[in-house]
Design a protein that fits this description.
- By secondary structure, the protein is of the alpha/beta class.
- It has a single domain (about 1-180), classed as Rossmann fold, CATH 3.40.50.150.
- It is about 25% helix and about 30% strand.
- It is built from five helices and seven strands; from the N terminus they run H-E-H-E-H-E-E-H-E-H-E-E.
- It has helices at about 5-20, 35-45, 55-65, 100-110, 145-155, and strands at about 25-30, 50-55, 70-75, 85-95, 115-125, 160-170, 170-180.
- Strands 3-2-1-4-5-7-6 form a seven-stranded mixed beta sheet, sandwiched between helices.
- Helix 1 (about 5-20) crosses helix 2.
- It is globular and about 35 Å long.
């Protein structure tokens, strides 16, 4: 089971420990799965509003059962069902490498972030000799394995790297990257006609 994975639980705790929650009223976890990151953040600050989005109804059902205070929405990262500037912090753990259009996802995240909001990504640094071609699903770990590569991928959406750290979980090395956005107020255009939040 996903929740039993030592790596997934370890990364979720690492993200929760890495994020800065000062002044944060609402957190969005993109590709939340079973809500492990939000559950770990809730331990740090039970008062913050916790929102998770994922394409898997089954994973979201587990998330709702495990974190009843959270708000869990079935949807896609490429079109987040939130209003502009509606969250203070966005997290995305071990999922950006799976996005078909990461540039669109970065732009959507920038749109929903409030001014001075932050994005925290957890991405993998694959071990030597690793190839995404051996996986049974499409993945692009190589595009996000260093802070410089994350910065290059996120820059078109107005993001810049403010800090980073790494952690090891068995054979997996995870890069934690915090990004800030200058998008809002200069480039953001309201294009979401309806919102459920």
């Amino acid at each position: 089971m996903y929740d039993a994975s030592v790596m997934h639980r370890g990364v979720a705790r690492a993200v929760a420990d890495f994020v800065v929650l000062d002044g944060v009223r609402a957190v969005l976890d993109v590709a939340t799965g079973t809500g492990l990151v939000l559950r770990a953040i809730a331990v740090r600050d039970p008062q913050v509003r916790l929102i998770g989005i994922d394409i898997s109804a089954g994973m979201l059902e587990v998330a709702r059962n495990e974190l009843p205070a959270g708000e869990f929405i079935e949807g896609r990262a490429e079109r987040l069902p939130l209003l502009d500037a509606s969250v203070d912090l966005v997290t995305c753990a071990t999922a950006m490498h799976l996005m078909a259009e990461p540039g669109v996802v970065f732009s959507e995240i920038a749109r929903v972030l409030a001014p001075r909001g932050r994005l925290v990504l957890a991405t993998f640094q694959p071990p030597p000799g690793h190839s995404d071609a051996s996986r049974p699903y499409r993945a692009n770990h190589a595009a996000f394995e260093t802070a410089d590569l994350v910065a290059a991928a996120a820059a078109p959406a107005g993001f810049s790297v403010s800090r980073n750290a790494t952690g090891r979980y068995g054979d997996d090395v995870c890069l934690l990257t915090e990004l800030t956005s200058s998008w809002f107020g200069s480039q953001c255009e309201t294009h979401l006609e309806t919102s459920i939040i």
